[in-house]
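Appendix B.2, paired examples.
Example (i):
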Amino acid sequence: MLEPSNNNELPPIPGKRYFTIGEVAELCAVKPHVLRYWEQEFPQLKPVKRRGNRRYYQHQDVLMIRQIRTLLYEDGFTIGGARQRMSGHQDGEDSGYKRHLIRQLRSELEELVAILKT
């Protein structure tokens, strides 16, 4: 498992429409029970539930989970503080975090371009 400070070393998100909880756990370097707990704590995180209450996450859910992971593991937020930050009630915007997300997305897009060129 990755160290919490190595969020930039997370694997790129594949171009799939839906991901299972196990796939998301690997993509975000957290355990499935942590994802289920975060669903209770963060109202924005609502994966689609299908047969037998199976969870299916979409791309924006995976990005949100990575954002929550960064807030909790790297930035040192509590669950309550991360919940406030995610809901937008924080007065000062964290432009550093936005830059981090943009860099991460850009890196993933560059990898995709390199794959397409081969």
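Example (ii):
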Amino acid sequence: MALEWLPREHEKKDHTLWGDEYFGAMDNPPCVVYEKKPIVDPKGNPVEGLYSAWIWLNNPRQYNSYTTEMVKGVISGMTNASADRSVVAVVFTGVGDRAFCTGGNTKEYAEYYSGRPTEYALYMDLFNGMVDSILDCKKPVICRANGMRVAGGQEIGGACDLCISSDLAIYGQAGPRHGSAPVGGSSDFLPWYLGIEDAMWNCISCEMWTAYKMFRKGYLSKVVPVLKDEDGNWVRNPQVITDEYVRDGEIAYGEFKTGDEFKKAREFVYNTSADFELLDKEVDKILWTFTNLFPNCLQMSIDSIRAKKKFFWDQGKLYYRHWLATNMSSEAFLGFHAFNTKKITGKDTIDFIKYRRLIDEAGLVNDEFMAEVLAKPKEE
């Protein structure tokens, strides 16, 4: 029986919270770029009226580290994609071939937020909103890791639902070495992906792990090569052991090579342009799979998995904010300034030995204390 007699509105309502005021253009970094691309079928044909929303971190000169305005752009992008009926899924990525994201912008941290704990607390409200916007997105979120996914970059990448990675990408945290802690998501998310001791070591050691090592440990959906040799053949990252042989009594698959072998491979990598053809094909495959599923059933399935990550994130995000803010007047002040002045001093960290000795002496943390542990400018 037809139901034409029921009064029904038909004009579509706009459910977006913001327009495009927090987005920028590719030729105007630093910013976030929001782009809609047509879904393509397995033959590469565009599907009319259906799209993926690409959210680009556009700050390649600073390894796509996010500024305050870029954080707003990510929130806006995730929110707009959620409300766009034509969007099947979100692809979260970075501009260039070096980095997906290396976390917060260290220059901004050092020159503005360090020493201003209340300002940093307000910033952390935005950062928490960025992570929430990924975990709450009403569309699946794919991280397209085009390069380094480090520090806060690993945290916002870990908030995504799936990750397809360039095999040149590296993964790790930097906080304990540079004045912070991985409490922007990694300490909550990594134990779900890795064994508890792997999660512990990855969070605290500041070691960089290869994409293949992360794949072996179950952290990534797929790792693909992005380099070609002179004959046009795909070449897996030559810096990394990609066959499972034993070194020093342990399986070495996914570990960096050493010595002259590594130096030769590194030279090849730096002299060869990255080609993301296979990376994008894998992203398209996932998008096509999503397109051919019931959207509400798909989202319910995703949200039920996300809930496990959200549980611990939601428990800690508010009190993390207070510690991080207070820390901006102590270890973060030292760590970010050391990193920000490395071109002047030649060092990107403080003198940790001297720092611990001053602590042992119960030294008062003042300007003189800080001057003792920060590196001095290089002589001309």
